[in-house]
Design goal:
EC number: 3.5.2.6
Keywords: Hydrolase
Number of helices: 9
Strand order of the largest sheet: 2-1-10-9-8
CATH architecture: 3-Layer(aba) Sandwich
Number of strands: 10
GO molecular function: beta-lactamase activity
Strand content: 15-25%
Radius of gyration: 19 Å
Enzyme class: hydrolase
Number of domains: 1
Helix content: 25-40%
CATH topology: Beta-lactamase
CATH superfamily: DD-peptidase/beta-lactamase superfamily
Oligomer: single chain
Protein name: Beta-lactamase class A
Length: 313
């Protein structure tokens, strides 16, 4: 009996996923502060090196979007906790379903008691019991809304997000679970994990409209342009945290951050007056004092300062 043919778009996605896996596996020469290359990142190497010397696990990556040249690669293939950054994968799945009209962005979803969770987000403080799917995606992107995340995950399913992640060729990056106030022994130990090389690739692909298709990519970028958290790498860009959807002093940013106990992570794409860069930084550290946390944030700001200098050269 003849096997049924797979749809053409499915075969195309498989081929693209294989190409992405090969590209991400390709060996690259590591960049070190002593090589003399990319001198505008010497401060980054020094700052992140100090954090690593103090015991933090540090990973960083940056790529020029026009040339594809690797600007920064510090343990960029190791897998670290990325907290809320993994919510990007949920947004991609939601956007893809809207594009394919599997459901409407105007479809209404209710919040239920099992969805309830604290920390980041504003829906938990609002009276509205229901919101449209597209509005929930905007809340996830803008304030990393945990309640909205859980409601969307209940609608699309974690398995679908994992399948979408695999179809993109991502092997070290994943959304592992829904958001929980506390994690027990039977729960995933982290909300999400990722490697900075894959997160850098993902933001570059979004910027090039290559994630699923152009419409899906543009919708995700629109949601991410609402992000209010500019406390890490993006703190160096001088942008208004509440209003930076357009270019400000020739700087245009889309980004997503992740924050948890002992975890600070950010990935994004930033365009300047002369260049554009995709970047990602993840740091896992002993968050036993305010001073330790501030050193991590200062190190991430140093990365942003070097990126700013590069894109405006």
């Amino acid at each position: 009996m003849a096997r049924p043919e797979r749809p053409r778009h499915h075969l195309v996605e498989i081929t693209r996923a294989r190409e992405r896996r090969e590209r991400l596996r390709t060996p690259r020469a590591p960049q070190h502060a002593g090589t003399g290359e990319h001198e505008n990142f010497s401060a980054t190497f020094a700052a992140l090196g100090r954090l690593a010397y103090e015991g933090a696990r540090v990973s960083a990556s940056a790529v020029d979007l026009a040339s594809g040249k690797t600007l920064l690669a510090i343990d960029d293939r190791i897998v670290l906790p990325t907290a809320s950054i993994g919510k990007i994968l949920l947004l991609i799945e939601v956007s893809a379903r809207i594009t394919r009209r599997e459901f409407s962005g105007y479809g209404i979803l209710d919040k239920t008691p099992p969805d309830a969770v604290g920390d980041s987000g504003i829906w938990q403080h609002l009276q509205a019991p229901s919101l449209p799917i597209a509005d929930l995606a905007s809340l996830v992107a803008s304030t990393s809304d945990n309640l909205a995340t859980n409601v969307l995950l209940r609608e699309v399913g974690l398995a679908a997000v994992r399948s979408r992640t695999e179809s993109l060729g991502l092997m070290r990056t994943a959304l592992l679970d829904l958001v929980r106030d506390s994690r027990g022994p039977d729960d995933a130990p982290q909300l999400s994990v990722g490697s900075t090389t894959e997160l850098t690739w993902l933001f570059g692909a979004l910027a090039r409209n290559e994630v699923v298709d152009a419409l899906t990519s543009q919708r995700v970028l629109g949601w991410l342009s609402l992000n209010c958290d500019l406390s890490m790498v993006a703190s160096a860009f001088g942008l208004d945290p509440l209003a930076h959807r357009g270019a400000d002093h020739s700087t245009l940013l889309v980004n997503k951050t992740g924050t948890d106990a002992g975890v600070r992570a950010e990935a994004g794409a930033v365009r300047g007056s002369s260049r554009s860069v995709a970047y990602a930084v993840s740091i896992q550290f002993n968050d036993d004092s305010l001073a330790a946390r501030l050193r991590v944030l200062e190190g991430m700001r140093t990365v942003g300062t070097d990126l700013l200098e590069y894109i405006h050269q």
